[in-house]
Write a structure and sequence with these properties.
The complex is a heterodimer.
Chain A (H helix, E strand, L loop, with lengths): L4 E3 L2 E5 L4 E6 L7 E7 L6 E6 L5 E4 L2 E6 L4 E6 L8 E8 L5 E3 L3 E6 L1
Chain B lengths: L3 E4 L2 E4 L5 E7 L5 E7 L6 E8 L2 E4 L6 E3 L9 E3 L8 E8 L9 E2 L3 E5 L1
Parallel strand pairs in B: 2-11
Antiparallel strand pairs in B: 1-3, 3-8, 4-5, 4-9, 5-6, 7-8, 9-10, 9-11
Classes of the chains: A mainly beta, B mainly beta.
Chain lengths: ~110, ~110
């Protein structure tokens, strides 16, 4: 069974602080890693799709890194804002045309 | 606007009845997917289709059926054989088929079986 682990499960961060969380996966059979943001009452939206070891991607205050050899990705949010409150999902393609999702990290920004 | 539409948003059914969840996309995507979410679990794949008139079972296909007669539509039927059907269901699409491109999601259908 190919598991995708996300930690922490939930996180409360003061507005203006920076934060990060982790997605861990088996390093074998890696093809691609996806990060999605899922706000309450909305659809999940893609943040990044990453395929190369050492990849770093950035969108505004959010960035992500990927280490396929050790099997982890970090998602960073700089200067958290209330609109960053959401569940952040990590999903892996292990080369079988399917995405395997983690359980998500639920982020709450405290004003 | 382009996107994925799931309907209805909330659905209630009596135990033993089949129910069909609608998923329509106007993104011209080849691939479509159905996921299920339960509390404390990640999204789990029920069925997926990479092309019209073809579909494959995902990780938890038992008790579900799908069809893909049109590119835009991928309805999911929850049959009476599904032992625990109460859940939140998400539909997604992507193009080209495969999972190195981002998936686009609908807003979901919450099914409650009483």
């Amino acid at each position: 069974i190919l598991n995708v682990e996300q930690s922490p499960q939930s996180l409360h961060v003061q507005e203006g602080d920076s934060t990060n969380f982790t997605c861990s996966f088996p390093s074998s059979n890696f093809y691609a890693l996806h990060w999605y943001r899922w706000e309450t009452a909305k659809s999940p939206e893609a943040l990044f799709v990453m395929t190369l070891n050492g990849d770093e991607k950035k969108k505004g205050r959010i960035s992500a890194t990927l280490n396929t050899k050790e099997g982890y990705s970090y998602l960073y949010i700089k200067g958290s804002q209330p609109e960053d409150s959401a569940t952040y999902l990590c999903a892996l393609n292990f080369g079988n045309e399917k995405l395997t999702f983690g359980t998500g990290t639920r982020l709450t920004i405290i004003p | 606007d382009g996107g994925i539409t799931q309907s209805p948003k909330y659905l209630f059914r009596k135990e033993g009845q089949n129910v069909t969840l609608s998923c329509e996309q106007n993104l011209n995507h080849d691939a479509m997917y159905w996921y299920r979410q339960d509390p404390g679990q990640g999204l789990r794949l029920i069925y997926y289709s990479q092309i019209v008139n073809d579909f494959q079972k995902g990780d938890i296909a038992e008790g579900y059926s799908v069809s893909r007669e049109k590119k835009e539509s991928f309805p999911l039927t929850v049959t009476s054989a599904q032992k625990n059907p109460t859940a939140f269901y998400l539909c997604a699409s992507s193009s080209p088929p495969g999972t190195n491109t981002e998936a686009f999601f609908g807003q979901g259908t919450r099914l409650t079986v009483v």
